[in-house]
Amino acid sequence: MAIRIKDTTRDYLCSVPLPVHADTYTVISHESVMDYAVAQLVQAGFTIQDESYRCTADGNIAQGIYYLNHQGDDELGMMFAWANSYNKQMRFKCAIGGYVYTSLSSMFASDMSVWGRKHTGSADAETIQTISDQIAQAQFYFSKLVADKAIMKNISITSRRAAELLGVLFAEYEILTTEQISFVKGQMEKRLYYYNATGTLWEFYNHVILALKKSHPRDWMEDQRKLHWFLAMEYDFANCYTLTVSDTVQEEILDSLADN
């Protein structure tokens, strides 16, 4: 039976019992992530306009999003997101990203704005430092997302090409589930939101990130990242990124892209 995913609250995540693991496993608590992220965002001058949380039924895998007051673009807002696990199914991750005002769909660019750390050794201290570093570079990361949006708006794609991309995302990169691919297909036929970019890569991208809102918290950030990397490489707007994180998932993405 699939693990049920639910919307939740900060209070519930704070109440989830911490795991008992071997000495080699460093527990990073949901509460400590939330406390430090909020403190650093406020210290950096951001106001959190809203926040949302999702988790598995037992609370062992969770994600959080903080929607910020940054006014750098007419269509995109800035956000900070994190994902954490108590059961070793994923490593802690955090990111500065963007969200589309009309749909609240999220977007993350590259490993420049996403950091993941195994829960070993000094992972808790490094988590705190990395949250701080991410927030300090927020404008840099957000500006790249705005630039990518402008590029995608200028790329026209046919419905056939959109279907081809959708097939690759599903069958080759396994970013979308069968339910999500059906949802995207429905959006291509009758969209819920208008993105002022009919027939463009930006419109297609929005259909997909809207579907990804329902991804498992364990996979959500990685799915978003893989999507952005795939389209950036496919349409040659990835050359503005400098990879700074050595990560197993990153290597898998780049290897799979190189095979095409």
Task: Looking at this protein, list some descriptive labels.
disordered C terminus; 260 residues; 7 strands; single chain; 7-stranded antiparallel sheet; alpha+beta
Give an account of the 3D structure.
This protein is of the alpha+beta class and 260 residues long. Helix content is 44%, strand content 18%. α5 (159-172) runs antiparallel to α6 (178-189) and α6 crosses α7.
Briefly summarize what is shown.
This protein is of the alpha+beta class and 260 residues long. 44% of the residues lie in helices and 18% in strands. Strands 1, 2, 3, 4, 5, 6 and 7 form a 7-stranded antiparallel beta sheet that branches.
Low-confidence runs (pLDDT<50, min 5 residues)? 240-260
The global form is: globular
Q: Compute the separation of the termini in Å.
A: 35 Å
Mean pLDDT: 85
The chain-level structural class is alpha+beta
Helix content: 40-55%
How many helices? The count is 9
Radius of gyration (CA) equals 18 Å
Strand content: 15-25%
Largest β sheet strand count, sense and barrel closure = 7 strands, antiparallel
Instruction: Describe the oligomeric state of these chains in a short phrase.
Output: single chain
- Give the SSE string: EHHEEEEEEHHHHHHH
Question: How many individual β-strands?
Answer: 7
List the helices and strands and how they pair.
Layout: E1 5-8, H1 10-15, H2 30-43, E2 48-56, E3 61-68, E4 76-85, E5 92-100, E6 106-107, E7 114-117, H3 123-136, H4 138-153, H5 159-172, H6 178-189, H7 201-212, H8 220-234, H9 248-258
Antiparallel strand pairs: 1-2, 2-3, 3-4, 4-5, 5-6, 5-7
Helix pairs in contact: 2-3, 4-7, 5-6, 6-7, 7-8
